[in-house]
Amino acid sequence: MRVKSALILLVLAVLAIFSCRKETVASWDVDLTGPIVSSKLNIRHFLTDSLFTNDANGLLTLNVNREVAYIKVDSLLKIPDTTIVNSFFTPVLLTLSPGQSMNLLPPTPLTFSIGDGVALKYAIIRNGNLKIKYSNTISEPLSFLYILPGVKKYGQPLTITEIIPPGNNSLVKTYPLDGYDIDLTAGGTANFNTITQSYTVSLSQTANSVVANPGTGAKIELSYSEIIPQYARGYFGMQSVPVNIDTARLDIFKNFNATNFMLSDATLDFRIINEFGAEFNGSLSNIKSLNTINQSSVTLNTQQLSAININRAFAVNNVVNPTIKLISLNKNNSNILPFISNLPDKLTYAGTINLNPLGNTSGFNDFAYYNTGIKVLADIKIPMKFMADAFLLQTVSPIDFTNIEQLDNVNYGDFIIKAKNGYPFDAVLQAYLVNDQNVVIDSLFVPGNNIIAKGITNAQNVVISPSFQRLYIPFDNAKLQNIKKSKSVKLKARLNMPTPQPPEISIKDTYEIDIDIIMDVNYKVKRK
Amino acid sequence: MAFLTVLNSKAQYNTEFINYSSMGRGVALNVDYEAGSNAIKNDMMNKLIWGGYISTEMKDASDKKLKEKNNFGINLNYGTTAFVKGNSKFDFLIGFKNQEVLNASFNSDFYRLMFYGNKRFLGDTANISHVSVNALRFQEVKFGAIIHHVDSVAKIGCSVSFLKGEQLFYFKTGANASLYTAADASSIQMNSNFNLAVSDTSNRNLFSFNGIGANADIFFETPYKSKVGKKSLLIVNANNIGFIHWQNKSVQYSSDSVITFKGYQIENILDLKDSTLNKINQDTILQNLVNGRKEKFNINIPTNLVLINKIYFGKMNFVLNTGFRYIFNANYKPYFFAEPEYQYKKFKFIGHFGHGGYARFNFGASINYIGKHLFFKLGSNSLQGFIVPKLAYGQGVFFSIAKRFK
Predict the structure, then answer these.
(1) DSSP for A77-142?
(2) d(CA A325, CA A377)
(3) In a domain, B78, yes or no
(4) How far apart are CA B74 and CA A157, in angstroms?
(5) Proportion of chain A above pLDDT 70, given as a percent
(6) Which B residues, 377 through 406, put their C-beta within 8 Å of a C-beta on chain A?
(7) How far apart are CA B319 and CA B9, in angstroms?
(8) Is residue B206 part of a domain?
(9) Which of A72, A149, A432, B237 keeps 20 to 30 A from B165, CA to CA?
C-alpha cells in the first residue's frame, strides 16, 4: 500500500514539475560588421539577351541578332475546299440481285481549283478531311466502293467501302487524309491539280433482290476540306504577296536610355533567308526605329532594300537548303547611326514579295514545305563608342527576403557599398523597392551619397586607374520590413559623361565597377 | 550565529542519497538551482537564464571584471524521488528527474565578441582560443537501493538511470582559434580551430528523444574515530557517472583552418534571385565554411563529486560540515565549503560558506523541517546573488518537500 501511494505521489509530482516548464528568451544587442557580397556591376548586366565581343583594342561591341519578320507562304499552296456530287441513278426500271452493279457512267477525274496560276503536280497532305454524305433511294442497302488510285499511304491507294442504308443522307462519314501522298497529274504528265477516282455502286450482298424504279439509286456528296500540304511540288504561279506594315520587338535597349546619344559606328545586316523552292523578288520599305519611351522614331534611309532578288532554295533528300540574301547597311550607305542611336525597342516594316517573277523557270519543280517561308533576320553590331550627355540604365530584379528571419532582429545599421569604378563616367545609383502590387514603397540610397565617381582618365578619356568610394545606405527595422515586403528591386543607374563632353567615349571590356556590400548593423541576439 | 544540528542535511549537490539521511523513506519533490560565474554579474546572469533584455550597462559591469580566464555555469535539476521500504537493511530508490546544464569557460575577447559584436575588433584580432560551451538537457528515470546498516553504522547507496537526451550544444575551440576583422570590414579572417556538436534542432521539446544514455550514482557514508567532536562522519557521493549517445540527426562541425571571407561572390550584382539569396543563409554559411556532418556520437555528462566531513559537537545538535565538490566536464573549479548546522527540535538551521565552483565566494543558509510525516527544506548556497545582484556573482536555491513513510 505504501509503495502504491509512493508511486501515485511520484507520478503526480512528475506531472506537476514538468508541466511548469517554460522556455525563456534572453536578448542583447551587438554591433556586427562584415562583408556580405562581393560582385560586379557591368554594362553587360543591363542589356538583355546580348552578346558582347571586343576588338583588339578592347573596345566592346554589342552583337544582337533578332528575327524581324517571318513571312510564311503556306497560303500560296492551300488547296481550296472542294465538293462534288455523284449520282448513281438508274434511268430505266431495273431488277437488281445481291451484288449486282449499277454503275452506268464512267468515273470522272477530280480537279481542284487552286487559282493564281498554281499548278501542283504532287503533294503530301499534312492535314485534311474527306467528308462523304451518302443517300440511297432504293429500299434495300447498297454497297459503295470508292478508290483514289493516286492518293496513297504506305503505297496503298485510298479505298472507301461502305454499306449505304436506304434513306436521304442515311450515312455521313469523315475520313482523315493526313499523311497521304497525292499524285495530282491524274496519270498524265501534262495534267495538274487533278486526281483520278473510281466508284462502284451495287446492291449489297446481304440485301434482297429489288426492283429499282427509274431515277432511283445512290447519291454521293464528297467534300475535300481543310487540306494543308506538308509538301507541294509544281509551279506556284506568279503571285504578289503584300507584306503589310508590322512591328517587331527588339528588346535590346529596354533597360537603356540616353540623352543626346550618338553612336560612332554601327552596322545592320539584314539576312533574308528563302526556304521556298521558288524565286522571289521584293522590297522592304517604311522601316522605322521606334523608341516608345522617348516617343521618337527614325526612318531608315537606304536604297539597299528597294529591289531584292532572292534565289530559290534547293532540297536534297527532303532537306531544304535555303538561300540567303545578305544586305548590309552601314553609315556609308544608310542613316544607320541615327537609326540605331534612337535606341529602338521596336522596328516597323512593310513591303512586297513577288513569287516567280520570271515565270515557270523550274518546269513545275517549285517546291515548298509546310511552315517555311522567307525569314528576315537583323544582325546588329554596335561598337560601344559614342557621344552622350548621360545615359540611364535600369533593371528590375526579383527578390524575396521573406524567409530571412535574421532581418527581423536587425535594429538599425548601414549597408556599405564599397565601389571601385573603372568606368570613365560617374554613376548615380538609386534602388527602389517594389511590392507585389508593382508599387514603389521605398528607396535605398540617400541622394547625395549615391554617386560613384568616375575612374581617372587620360587625355583620350581612357581609364588609367579606377576610383574608390564608400556609399552608405542607412536603414532601420522599418526599412528592412519594407525590404522583406518587396518582390523586386528596380535599380536605376545614371551614368554622367565627363564635362566638358569629350568627342567620344569608348567602353572597354576591362571596364567595370567592383562592388562589395558590407553590413554594419546593430543586431539583437536572442538566446532561446 | 551558531548553527547546530544532529542530522545530516546536505543540499544543492544534485544527489538523492544525501537527503536520505534526513528524510528517510518517503516521496520527495526536489528542485535544485544554482548559477554562478566569476565574471558575469548576477543581474546579467538572471537575464541570460530567465530571459529579458541585457542592457549595455549590465554588459559593461561584467566586462570590467573579466579575467584572462572566466567561467559560467548553471545547473537546474528538478524531479521527484521515492525511497520505499525494502527490508530491514536496505530501501529501494525510484526517481524521475530533469537536468539542465549550461557551463562555459571563456576569455575576455570571446565575451566581448558575443555580447558586443565584432565591430569593436575592427582592424584587430579577437582571441577566441580555449573557449568551451556546454549546454545539455536530459531527463532520467532512476532505480537504486541504499543499504542503510552496513556494519550497523555505514550506508552504501547506488543507482542506475536511463537517460533521455533532449538537447545538446557543445562548442570547444582550440589554441589557435581567432577572428580577425579588417579595418574597413571588407573581410573577416577566421582561424577556425573548433568543434561544435548540436542535437537535432528541429526536435526540441520535452518529448524529443534525441539521445539515449545511462548513468550511475554511488554513495558512501561511514563514521570514523576522531579526536575532535563527539562523532565524525565521512560522506562520499559521486553521481551522473555516465554518457548520452546522441542519435544520427545530431550534427557535428569541425574545422581547423584559416578561412578568409570577403562576401559571397556573385557574378552579377543585379542577379538577386532566390538561389543567390539562399546562399546568404546562416546554415549554408556554416555548412560551407566547416566540415558539417550528421552522425551519432557520445558525450559524457558532467559528473558530480561531493566529499563531506561531519563533526558533531555538544549534545550532537551542533555539526560542522566541511567539504569539497567538483564537477567533471563542466568548466567547474574545485569548490571548498564549510557548513555549520544547528538543530532545534524539529528544525535545523544551516549556514554555508564556500569558494570556487562557478562563482567566487558564496554564502548561504537553509532551514529544514523534519516532522513525523513531513520533510521540508528550503535554502540557498549562494544568497549573495539575491541580495546584491549588481555586485555579486552566483545565486542558487534548493527546495524539497517530502511525505515521509515508516
Answers:
(1) GPBPPEEEEEEEEESS-EEE-TT-B---S----EE----TT-EEEEEEEEEEEEEEEEEE-SSS-E
(2) 10
(3) no
(4) 95
(5) 92
(6) 403, 405-406
(7) 10
(8) yes
(9) B237
Strands (E), A165-197: 167-176, 181-183, 194-195
For residues A381-400, average pLDDT: 85
Establish how many alpha carbons lie within 13 A of residue A57's alpha carbon, considering only the half-sphere containing its beta carbon. Answer: 8
Which of A6, A35, A399 is nearest residue B262 as measured by Cβ atoms?
Answer: A35
Residues in chain B: 406
* Cβ-contact B296, B245 below 8 angstroms: yes
Closest CB from A29, A401, A416 relative to B277: A401
Domain containing B214 equals: 86-357
B31 found inside a domain: no
Q: Are B288 and B259 in contact (CB under 8 A)?
A: no
For residue B118, the 8-state DSSP code is: G
pLDDT in tens, A109-145: 888 888 788 899 999 999 999 999 999 999 999 999 9
Q: Choose among B274, B268, B275, B266: nearest CA to A47.
A: B268
Q: Which residues contact A408 (CB under 8 A, 6 or more apart)?
A: A477, A480
Which residues of chain B lie closer than 8 angstroms to A408, CB-CB?
A: none
What does DSSP say about strands B297-300 and B231-246: parallel, antiparallel, or unpaired?
A: antiparallel
Contact residues on chain A for B78, CB-CB shorter than 8 A: 17
pLDDT value at B257 more than 70: yes
* B51:A24 CB<8 A: yes
How many structural domains is chain B composed of?
Answer: 1
- Give B 97-116 residues with CB within 8 A of chain A: 98, 114-116
Quote the CA–CA distance of A310 and A351 in Å, as a whole number.
14
- Nearest residue on chain A to B44, judged by CA atoms? A26
| Interface contact B263-A518, CB threshold 8 A | yes
**Cα B213–B240–B206 angle (5° rounding)?**
55
Residues of B numbered 256-285 whose beta carbons fall under 8 angstroms of chain A's beta carbons: which are they? 261-274, 277, 280-282
- Considering only CB atoms, which chain A residues are within 8 Å of B96? 10, 14
Q: Which of B30, B56, B268 to mutate to test the interface with A (most CBs of A within 10 A)?
A: B268
pLDDT value of residue A65: 87
Cell output for A198: 473510281
pLDDT in tens, B273-318: 555 555 555 555 556 666 677 888 899 999 999 999 999 998 888 9
> If you measure CA to CA, which chain B residue comes closest to A396?
B270
**CA end-to-end span of chain A:** 44
A511 contact partners, CB below 8 Å, separation of at least 6: A42, A43, A422, A423, A424, A455, A463
Measuring CA to CA, which residue among A250, A164, A170, A257 is closest to residue A203? A164
Q: Are strands B52-54 and A26-41 parallel, antiparallel or unpaired?
A: parallel
- Which of A38, A403, A434, A484 to mutate to probe the B interface, most B CBs <10 Å? A38
Distance set, CA A428 to CA A135, A438, A449, A452 (Å): 82, 23, 9, 6
Q: Is B311 exposed, middle or buried (0-12, 13-18, 19+ CB in 10 A)?
A: middle
Please give the residue of chain A at the shortest CA–CA distance from B98: A18
Q: Which phi and psi angles does B60 have, rounded to 5°?
A: -65, -40
Q: CA–CA distance from A300 to each of A249, A330, A339, A344, A379 (Å)?
A: 16, 11, 6, 12, 15
Closest residue of chain A to B57, computed from CA coordinates: A28
How many C-beta neighbours within 10 Å does residue B338 have? 14
Asked if B261 and A28 come within 8 Å (Cβ–Cβ), the reply is no
Cβ contacts of A520 within 8 Å, gap of 6 or more: A31, A32, A33, A413, A414, A415, A416, B119, B185
**Out of B206, B263, B403, whose CB is closest to A21?**
B206
Q: Which residues of B touch A517 (CB under 8 A)?
A: 263
Nearest-Cα distance to chain B for A452, in Å, is 15
Let me know if residue B35 belongs to a domain.
no
Q: For residue A41, which residues of chain B lie inside 8 Å, CB to CB?
A: 269-270
